[in-house]
Specification:
Length: about 220
């Protein structure tokens, strides 16, 4: 079960396809891939995405100790398939206290990772700094670059499977998790991994709103 589809970039309402257009349309961002968030049975949603997604469905394998899945979301429809997939996980931070981690795979231009990272624009800007993190994604060492974002979180982005790989962490110091050997597997290649995942309390991280642009009259 999901809520009504919204814009992946701003969570605004969408105009569905009609006789004049086969695209979902946001008044603010034009044609978009509709964003869905599983509100019940995230296990079922994750297994379905393993069949329908056109991008990797990243899951940690193994999951960090005492971590669990707290939410699943995707951008796309039955016609085009999921062009972005987000997995929300939660558990103990390496420095103590609770932490959240989002893993997002998305085709360029979707804008989901940018919204969840708290930055403007559909894609990260030029990555001129050196990479500061690394994961293993589908058996390949994958560099991650830091992204300037609000201070309550840490954001990293790289490329895996021909699309963006975002890794977001709350609070920011939970980024120490990247010092561990974090291995990601694509559920499309190993669907039985879903049977090993622990599902827990739902998170609201997938509903993080779009940041207010600089210079906006609504910005505080």
């Amino acid at each position: 079960m999901t809520i009504a589809p919204t814009c992946p970039r701003c969570l605004g309402g969408l105009r569905p396809p009609d006789l004049w257009s086969d695209q979902w349309r946001c008044e603010r961002h034009g044609d978009v891939s509709p964003w869905h968030e599983a509100t019940a049975s995230p296990e079922h949603a994750l297994r379905r995405l393993a069949d329908l997604a056109t991008v990797p469905v990243w899951v940690p394998s193994p999951m960090p100790v005492h971590w669990y899945v707290g939410g699943v979301g995707w951008a796309g429809d039955d016609r085009s398939g999921a062009r972005a997939v987000a997995l929300a996980t939660a558990g103990p931070s390496p420095v103590g206290g609770p932490a959240d981690m989002l893993l997002i795979a998305e085709s360029p231009g979707t804008g989901l990772g940018a919204r969840l990272a708290g930055i403007n624009g559909p894609d990260p800007e030029r990555l001129d700094t050196l990479p500061e993190g690394k994961v293993e994604a589908a058996g390949h060492p994958t560099a991650l670059w830091p992204v300037a974002c609000p201070s309550d979180r840490a954001a990293f982005v790289g490329e895996a499977g021909g699309v963006w790989l975002w890794l977001l962490l709350w609070p920011a110091d939970a980024a120490l998790l990247l010092m561990e050997h974090l291995v990601l597997e694509d559920l499309r290649d190993r669907p039985t991994l879903a049977d090993r995942l622990l599902f827990g309390a739902p998170t609201d991280r997938l509903s993080t709103p779009m940041p207010i642009p600089e210079g906006s009259p609504h910005r505080l």
